[in-house]
Amino acid sequence: MRIWAQGLGVGLLAAGMVWAQEAPGPEVRQCSICHGKREFKKVQPDGSVRPLFVDERELKASVHARWHCLDCHADIKTIPHPERLEKVNCQRCHFPGNPVGAPEEVNYEGYVESVHGRLQRAGNPKAPRCQDCHGAHGVRKASDPNSLVYKRQIPATCGKCHPQVLEVYQRSVHGTTLLVRGNNDAPSCSDCHGEHQILPRKEQASEVSATQIPETCGHCHGSLEFNQKYDIPVNPVKTFKHSFHGIANELGSMRVANCASCHTAHAVLPPSDPESSVHPANIPKTCGKEGCHPGANVNYARGRFHIDPSRRDAGVVYWVALFFKYLTVSTLAALILHILLDLRSKLQKRAQGHE
Amino acid sequence: MANAPRKDQLVVRFTRVELIQHWVLLVSLLGLALTGLALFAHATPLGRWLIELEGGMEARGLWHRVFAVLLIGLTVWHLLYVLFSPRGNEQLRAMVPTRQDLRDLASLIRYYRGVQGEPPEFGRFSPLQKLQYWGAGVGSLIMIFTGFILWFHTEAMMVLPKWLFDVTAVVHGYEGLLLFIVLFVWHVYMVHLSPGHFPWSRVFLTGKITAEELWRHHRAEYRALFGDEPPLEE
Predict the structure, then answer these.
(1) Which residue, of B2, B31, B188, B200, has the fewest CB within 10 Å?
(2) Is the pLDDT assigned to residue A13 strictly greater than 50?
(3) In this structure, what is the dihedral angle of CA atoms A7, A13, A18, A24, given to the nearest 10 degrees?
């Protein structure tokens, strides 16, 4: 509500600005006197260089091609303008019911509540705002391969601030499949973490919290068809949910292993890869993590994982389960038969006794 | 001995020690079934409800172990009782399956088929009762053995390969289900719900059986006690 009201206020202002386009003010051409020069930059007090060149072609190729500098940089009234300008506020246009036709379905609430939004409100200058992910002058639709938020561009975009995660992800099966093989079946950052509403994993509502992870991985790995397409013979989410880990996880145990506990979050690799956390040689170390099964040895790797006892490929577990199924069903059948026979004979006898 | 008893004369069937053992078994198995089968049925609303009722996953596991300790204690007590006490040992001997049991079973089938007019005359324990005793006994030992492996999995996995551990978990689940069905369906039907006992038999409370029930259900034992005359009306 608060955000909406804020949006409305800002929106009215924006609308005023839009309608007042004819009002005197610097034109794009005037901005480009300085910002159109490639070498235009500023040396910061700490010695670093901040480029101030704005490629007009970038703006023209973006979704904002029809807008002018001042539509966003609204606090510029004169040229030259003051050195410190306000950060551009996208909500000037992007609010529900805006009169300029800007897309309204922006998840501000999600962003405000997200870890990024919280840091931003707390005054952390590194916390990303809209333009840090979507681009400043070159905003493009997410479906545009040149967009910073296009699926295959997202890892690089997030990696600007999270370079270590990017490095690990790039080597994972998800990273190589998406970025090297160009297969959009593989997840980029936002497929697991969410887009605007990214929450820390310690929070239960997070897409990547211990109890949400199976659901999140299940978006892709939840169907047998998908898994078989990538040489995974079982539905790992289903078998996990029937395992002791999975049951405890579903019932809210934060202590028990979830998908990422064994497969890692970003370095996911197939078990055939010696680098993989679930490669047989690495199983003892993975299972033996502190708080899990300290002292785990090679025995942990002697057997299949993600077994479904009702499927033949579960091996000996399948046969034992099958034996018990037959035993249980035949015992049940025998005792029901006995009960029925016993009832019949006793009730017959009783009926005869009364005659 | 030859004097026929009155129909309502009471005969001791189980001693107090045996009744207490039965109670401990009943409570521990019921507790184990509720906490264990809740896990077995975790995917159903009933299972989930039971687990919530039991205080969540970890409290459920704790309760399961409490009842398990009760069952283990009882098993030790029972083994000592049937092996070393004169009365217990006598009961154990009466529980040993014999050739007569096979003949009685065949006779029972003929009786159910209507080929034979009268049911077989059972002794102190009928063949089906023996089957249930030994089934429950062996079943409990399997449950205790596999349960120990699951309980002390970290230690067990030092020597067991993972696949054997997985087999253990499967055996524990299905054997538990089997035990539950045999005891809480079949045994309860035979002792309480079948015509002649319905709605319930009080033998498990008092330990005493009437001469009439003895005549009807354990006639061979009756004959050994009172001779061939049926019990007298009043």
Answers:
(1) B2
(2) no
(3) -150
Measured CA to CA, the distance from residue B218 to residue B199 in angstroms comes to: 20
- Chain B: closest CA distance from residue A246 (Å): 10
Looking at residue B34, its pLDDT comes to: 94
**Residue A240 and residue A191 share a domain:** no
What φ, ψ does residue A130 adopt, rounded to 5°?
-45, -50
Q: Cβ of A311 under 8 Å from any chain B Cβ? A: no
pLDDT digits (tens, 9 = 90+) for A67-102: 888 899 988 888 888 888 888 998 888 888 888 888
Q: How many CB pairs under 8 A join A and B?
A: 104
Q: How far apart are CA A31 and CA A18, in angstroms?
A: 18
Interface test with A, best of B109, B170, B189, B213 (most A CBs within 10 A): B170
Chain B touched by A162 (CB under 8 Å): no
Crossing angle of helices B162-181 and B16-40, in 10° steps, is 120
A185 and A95 both lie in a single domain:
no
Residue of chain A nearest B39, judged by CA positions: A247
Which CATH code for domain B10-30+95-226? 1.20.950.20
pLDDT tens digits, one per residue of A146-182? 999 999 999 999 999 999 999 999 999 999 999 999 9
Which pLDDT band, with edges at 50, 70 and 90, does A7 fall under?
Answer: very low
User: End of a domain among A198, A219, A244?
Assistant: A198
pLDDT band at B56 (very low <50, low <70, confident <90, very high): confident
> Is A222 domain-assigned?
yes
Mutate one of A211, A239, A342 to test the B interface: name it (highest B CB count within 10 A). Answer: A342
CB contact under 8 A, A293 and B165: no
Q: Give the strand pairing for A41-43 and A49-51.
A: antiparallel
Chain A contact for B229 (CB, 8 A cutoff): no
